[in-house]
Amino acid sequence: MALLTEYSCKATPARRVVEVYDADAYLSDDEAMAAACRQVVAGNGYHLYIRSLQPDIDVEITIRVWDIPPAPPADAEGQVSVSIESESGILVVNQLEYGPAGEMALSRPGVYEGHTWWEGRQATADYYESSLDHPTDDTFEDHLTQAWSNCPVTERYVFDLAYAGEPEPVDEDDL
Fold first, then answer.
1. pLDDT for res 170
2. Do 94 and 53 meet the contact criterion of CB atoms below 8 Å apart?
3. pTM listed for this prediction
4. What residues form DSSP beta bridges with 157?
5. Which has the closest alpha carbon to 54: 135, 154, 162?
6. What are the average pLDDT values for consecutive 10-residue runs of the chain, which has 175 residues?
7. CA–CA distance, 40 with 79 (Å, rounded to integer)
């Protein structure tokens, strides 16, 4: 297993969602987003939705492309198989309320398959909830800003992918 490329960025899970999608895939998918609520990460082929348990503390998104993806770590909180097609060869990490957090250039356009695993999801949610237990006064907003900036745990989602084939040809009738 050789790591071919890696990209990481922080993203705010506004509305508790971060998405990864091909730069040319503009339409969202409500069904895939609903599936992410049930299984943490879900997609429709061009979009992958990540469902956090909290909406304000930045999460770390890491996309790694391997010749053959390694197995998720044994101590990961969870994992799910994923597939994403990138006709443009560029994956965008998007924050629903704030726009793109970053983008990764793949070595070539195509279909990438593998799995996503995560850690720190529940601990970050617990910390988030405990940070709300502060008297509502003039310092409440400052308290939250400081608490969320200094979260002792990193909520992290790792996409371990491998190139699986050429993108589907575009049907001219669909344009």
1. 65
2. no
3. 0.92
4. 61, 118
5. 154
6. 96 96 86 92 94 97 97 96 95 94 96 97 96 77 86 97 88 57
7. 9
Contact 94, 20 (CB under 8 A): yes
Beta pairing class for 90-95 and 99-105: antiparallel
* AA identity, residue 110: G
- Closest by CA to 55, choosing from 89, 97, 8, is 97
- CB neighbour class for 71 (10 Å; exposed up to 12, middle 13-18, buried from 19): exposed
In the block, residue with structure tokens 């237990």: 133
| Angle separating helix axes 121-131 and 140-149, nearest 10 degrees | 160
Give the three-class secondary structure for 125.
helix
Residue recorded with tokens 């492309």: 65
Tokens of 99: 């726009």
CB atoms closer than 10 angstroms to residue 89: 16
3-state helix, strand, coil in the chain (%, to 5): 20, 40, 35
* Joined tokens for residue 74: 């044994």
DSSP conformational letter for 88? S
Instruction: Report the distance separating Cα 164 and Cα 171, nearest Å.
Output: 21
